[in-house]
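Hi U.,

Before I forget, here's the chain from the pilot set. I'm dumping it here mostly so it's searchable later in email.
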Amino acid sequence: MQMMRSFSRDSTVVGQKLAPGTVRRIARFASPYRRDLAIFLALIVIDALVAVANPLIFKKIIDSGIGTDPPRTGNTSVVLAMALLLVGLALFDALIGLTQRWYSARIGEGLIYDMRSQVYAHVQRQPIAFFTRTQTGALISRLNNDVLGAQQAFTGTLSNVVSNVIGVTTVLIAMLFLSWQITLLSLVLLPVFVIPARLLGTKLQEITREGYTLNAQMNTIMTERFNVSGALLVKLFGRPEVEDGEFRDKAGRVRDIGITSAMFGRVFFVSLTLVASLATALVYGVGGTLAAEGSFSVGTLIALSSYLTRLYGPLTALSNVRVDVMTALVSFERVFEVLDLKPMVAEKPDAATLPKKAMAIEFADVRFRYPRAQEVSLASLESVAVLDNTDPQEVLHGVSFHAEPGQLIALVGPSGAGKTTISQLVTRMYDVQAGAVRIGGLDIRDVTLQSLRDAVGVVTQDAHMFHDTIRANLVYAAPDATDDALWASLDAAQVGGLVRLLPDGLDTVVGDRGYRLSGGEKQRMAIARLLLKAPGVVVLDEATAHLDSESEAAVQRALATALTGRTSIVIAHRLSTVRDADQILVIEDGRIVERGKHDDLLAADGLFAELYRTQFARQGVAEPVD
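Structure:
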C-alpha cells in the first residue's frame, strides 16, 4: 500500500525548485529529535537484518535438519534449535517493531506539534490584512495537510527509504551468495513490472489530483452551507432542492473517482503479485530442475523463493524515491513559506508599556494606504498564481486631531470616507506610512502590542461571539474574573436581567457567532465584555448601526456606562446619537473636512448639515428640535 501511495504522488514535484537552504532548515528543525532519529534508523536497520535471517534458517532446517535424500534420516536437534531460533527472532522482531513504532510516533507527533504550534503562533501575529485576503481553507490546509506531509518526511519517507535500501541490499547479497545465476535470472522480470507501473502511476497521479480537487469542492460546499449565514441564505431563497442536487453531483463525482482510484490500485497490486508469482515460478522451475539433478539443495531453493517476495516491492518503491523525497521536501517548504512571511506590524525590542487608564489620543498628520498584496499575503494562500501587486491608493491624507483624556470624539461621514480605517489605526491593526498615532503621548509603534490591546477596547458593528457559553465569551476579556464581576458587567451593559432568565444562566451556549442572541443582545454582551476588560480608551465602530429602535436605546444606555471616564472614538451611523460628543470630525475622501460640536456644525450648513438633513429625510421623520 505504501508503494501504491508513492506512485499516486504527483511526479511534477521533482521539477520544482526548492528555496536555497531548505534542507538545512529541515535539519535544524529536526535537531531536537536527532538522538531519537538515530535510534529509529538503527532499529530499522536491525529489523531489515532480522527479516533476512529467516530464509537462511529455513534453508538450514531443510538441508541440515530434515534432509532431502532417502531414507531422510534428519537431525532433530538441528530442527529444534532452528525452530527455537525462529521463535526467538520473532519475539525480538516484535519487540523491535514496537520500539520502532514508539520512536516513530514520538518523532512524528513531536514534529507535528512543533510545526503546528509555530505556524499557529506566527499566523496570530499577522496583520488583519492577511486574514482579509487569505482563504481560510488554504491556511488550515497548511496546518493539517502540509504539516502532516512534512512529518512524513521522517516517519514515512525516511524510514521507507532506509528500510528499502537496507532490505534490498541484504536480500540481494543473500541471494547472490546462494546462487548468483538464479538471482540475475529473477531480476530479468523486474523491468516487466517497473515500466508498466510507471505508466500506471502517471494515470494514478492524475486520478489522485482530480480526487483532491473534487473533495475540496465538496468540502467547500459543506463549509459554506453548514454555517448559520449560509444555511439562512439557502432557506430564505428556497433552494434546498437545488443545493441537494448540486451536492449530489459533487458527491457522485467523488464516488466515481474513488471507484476508479480503487480499481487502479487493485490493478497495481495484482500486477505486482503477478510478476512476483512469475518470478517465483521461474526460480522454482530452474532451481527445482537443478535440485532434481542433485546440483542444488532444496533448502536453497526455498530460501531463494522466500527472498523474492521481499525483493520486488522495495525495488519498485525505490524507483520512485525521488518523487517521495521531493513531495516531503515541498511540504516542508510550504510550511516554511508561511513562517517566512514577516508580520507587517512588529513590536520593537525596547517597546514601552502603555498604562491602562484614560489617555489622550492624537493623530499627527497621518497618511495611510492599505498594504500591497505581497506585503501581507501569499499567492498560494489566495489560490491565485500571482498576487496583484499594484500600489494601493492613499486613503488618509494628513489626518490630524487631538482628544483629551475622557473626551468623546465622533467620526461621521459618507460610506468609504475612511472612518473605520482611522479606528483601526488606533488599535494598530496597521501602521501608518507617514505621521504618527499617539496614545498618552507615546507613538503606538513604540509601545508593546499587549499593553496597547489591554489599554484599548473595541466594540465593532458585528460583535463576534465564539460558539461557547456566555461565561466563556466574557472571561475572554478577563480570564480571572469572578462571577460577581461578570454579573456586574452584564448589569452595566443592560443585559443582566435577560441572562438571569435563561435556564443555564452564564453557562448558556450562545451558538455559532452568537446567533442564538438577537443583534441588540449580542451588542450588549460585547459591551459587557468591554466593561470587564476595563480599558482606558474605547473605540466603537458603528455599534448601533443595524439595530431596531428598542435595541438601540438599550445599547445606548449600556454605552453611556461604558464610555464614562474613558477616552472614546465613536464611528456614528445615526448622527442623532453623537449630539453630546466633545468633538465631531466629519470625514470625506480620507480628510477631515469639518470639525466641531453638533450644533455648531449644523449652523455651519456644511457636509454634516447635509448628511443630517438627508438622513432624517430618508427616515421620514422630522428633525429633532433643540
